[in-house]
Every structure is written in structure tokens, then in C-alpha cells.
Amino acid sequence: MTAAPGQHRPATTTAHRVVVLVSGTGSNLAALLDAHDDVAYGARVVGVVSDRAAAGALDVARSAGIPTAVVAPRDFDDRANWDRGLAETAAIFRPDLIVSAGFMRILGAGFLARFPARVLNTHPALLPAFPGAHGVRDALEYGVKVTGCTLHVVDAGVDTGPIVAQVAIAVDDHDDEASLHERIKVAERALLVEWVGRIARGTLTVDGRHVVVA
Ligand code: GRF
Predict the structure, then answer these.
(1) How distant, in Å, are the alpha carbons of 98, 165, 177, 185, 213 from that of 144?
(2) Who lines ligand 1 at CB under 6 A?
(3) Residue 6 pLDDT > 60, yes or no?
(4) 31 Cβ neighbours under 8 A, 6+ residues apart
(5) Rounded to an integer, what distance in angstroms lies between the CA atom of residue 96 and that of residue 77?
(6) CA-CA distance, 88 to 177, in Å (whole number)?
(7) pTM of the full predicted structure?
(8) CA 28, CA 95: separation in Å to the nearest integer?
(9) Which of the following is catalytic: 8, 16, 123, 181?
């Protein structure tokens, strides 16, 4: 079956192949790895790619026997070449879906063109509020009473892509960035696992700003 533009269907009836991009500790990755052994889940992490050789998430992947790769910007002449190298490395794993889970770099136009409507990002704030690298800190400094996490399709902007799902988290008076981020991350992991599974078992359709998973 041929997918309509903006619509993505699994290439086969076997598990959806997921590549996870990481820079950090990898708790989101670990949550996906906890889920993916269950055949009924429908998705399987087949590769983990980082921009940092020291990322703890790589150890999480290795412990689970998942192949890893490091594509570090300093090994490339410029951003466009790094972006191309990243896309080529991700493509080796033949992904149906790519999940940026704590990957702290902007994906370039070349990367996104190679995997249209197939790249998701998890962000620790209720977008469109507080995009960027410090979503938790910025929300706290602004004084919001509710923040949360967002799973979205990646587009060319910074955390601007169409929203797949969100969860709200109340801010406590005594929260600091670490305590609030920890609570958000609990919700973020559950959200990511739930929606990667739903997408794997169904169809992700992006129509302008609107995402439907059915
Ligand atoms: C997550 O909160 C993600 O949204 C943010 O960084 C954190 C990564 O956590 N960009 P981990 O590496 O998955 O533990």
C-alpha cells in the first residue's frame, strides 16, 4: 500500500523499527526498551544514535544489546555534513520511526527530508510554551502553575512541530528545576511509550498542524 503524502504506514507487518537519538542519561530510552520486548507493543528499538560518546544513554542501549553509533559534530567540517552523517547513520537501521529523546541538537532540513513525518521529539514543557533547551527552567522562572511534556513531530523549527500528545503537570511552590524535571520525566516516559506503541500499531497522519494517530 502506498502512503499518501504526510501519512506514514509501517513498511511491514512486523514490529515498527525505531531509532532513538540521545544525548543524555537515557531514561526515556530505557522506558522504550522496557516496553519493546512485548510483541504486542508493536515497536522495537533497533538502533541508538548519539552526538556524544559519553552519553549515559549509550550504556543503557549497550546493556540491552541494542546497536549504537556516535555521530559527533566535531568529526565533521560543518553542520550540514554532520546532519548528513547523522541521517546516513540513522538510515542504516532502516527506521520506520525516529525518536529524539533528550537529543540536544537541532535536526537539519536534510535529515528531516530523508525521514518525512517520521521523526518525533519529546520536550519537557507544554509547547508552544517554553521551547528550547531549558523548557523546565524557563517555565519555573516564568511562574507558571502548570507545565508538562509534549510529544511532537519534528519540523524545521525549534520545538515547533505538530503536536502528537501532551500531559500537564502541576508546579509545586517548593519545586526547583531538578524536582520539577524529575516529575515531568515520569510523565514523559509514559507518554512516549504509549504513543510510540500507538503509532507503531496504527497510522500517523499529519495534516498541517494536526496529528491523528488511528
Ligand atoms: C527529557 O526531559 C527530554 O525531554 C529533555 O531531556 C530529558 C532527557 O532525559 N530534552 P533522558 O536522557 O531520556 O533521561
Answers:
(1) 31, 20, 13, 18, 30
(2) 24-29, 57, 101-102, 122-124, 185, 188
(3) no
(4) 189, 190, 192, 193
(5) 29
(6) 36
(7) 0.93
(8) 18
(9) 123
